[in-house]
Structures are given as structure tokens and as C-alpha cells.
Amino acid sequence: MTVRGALMQLGVPDRILDDFDSHSTISIETEGGAVINISVSDDRLFIWSPIKISEERLIDGSAVVLPIITTPMRDIETGHLTLGRCNDGFELKGLVNVEALAGDRLHEVINDFYGALRVIAGCA
């Protein structure tokens, strides 16, 4: 299955997918206001989200954050999500295994990612 096909199965409207190409990003706004981005770059699928949190808050919440980034996550190629510094805080991201698309598991990847994002963002 292609990224486009997987996104169609998730209910992304055709009008949004019309301009989706191999260097596009689709943003999904969650009920809690967090944004989950799905990007394709050089035939690789990334899932990522900015987290507005200070380093101090992240350190204070390290007891809950560390298990999130050290526990393996299904269908993430490196096995784990990564948390890195960016402009206004940090960014949680993962490289999605293409087998997740073939197995129609993109929705599971997004749900798992969202769960991790909620925990880390809860430290803010």
C-alpha cells in the first residue's frame, strides 16, 4: 500500500491528498490540540510532532519521559521514537517502517505515537 492509500483509509479527504507528493507533510490536529505530522521524504515516512516544553520541565518529567523514548515501538524502524531539540522546544519523531503500510497498520502507528506524545506533552 502507498502512503496516499494509507492516508485515504484513515479518512484524509481527497482535496488534501490532491497536492500530496513525495515531499509533502500532512498535519493531523488531535482533540487535545496537539499536531501530529506525517511527512514523506525520499520515499521514507516520518511521523513527528513539536512539543512546546522547556528543558527544565523535561528534566522534571524524566521519570515518565525516559520510558517512552526507551521502550520499543512497533513499526518504528529504529525501534524507538526520538526526542530532539528544535526551535521552540522539542520534537518527538519516528521513522515509520514501510511494512506498516503494507500491513494496513498506519492507524496503529499514529495511535501509539499519540499516546507517547500525550505523556511527554503532559510534562509541559
Write structural notes for this entry.
The mean pLDDT is 86. The protein has 124 residues and is of the alpha+beta class. The N and C termini lie far apart (37 Å). The chain is globular. It has six helices and five strands, in the order ααβββααββαα. β2 and β3 (44-51) form a beta hairpin. Helices cover 37% and strands 27% of the residues. It has a five-stranded antiparallel β-sheet. It has a single domain, classed as Yope Regulator, Chain: A (2-Layer Sandwich), CATH 3.30.1460.10. InterPro entries: Invas_SpaK. This is Invasion protein B family protein. It comes from Trinickia caryophylli.
Chart the SSEs and their pairings:
Elements (H helix, E strand, L loop, with lengths): L2 H7 L4 H4 L7 E5 L5 E7 L2 E8 L3 H6 L1 H9 L11 E5 L2 E8 L2 H4 L3 H16 L3
Antiparallel strand pairs: 1-2, 2-3, 3-5, 4-5
Quick structural overview:
The chain has 124 residues and is of the alpha+beta class. Helix content is 37%, strand content 27%. Strands 1-2-3-5-4 form a 5-stranded antiparallel sheet.
Top keywords for this entry?
five-stranded antiparallel beta sheet, 27% strand, 124 residues, single chain, Yope Regulator, Chain: A, alpha+beta
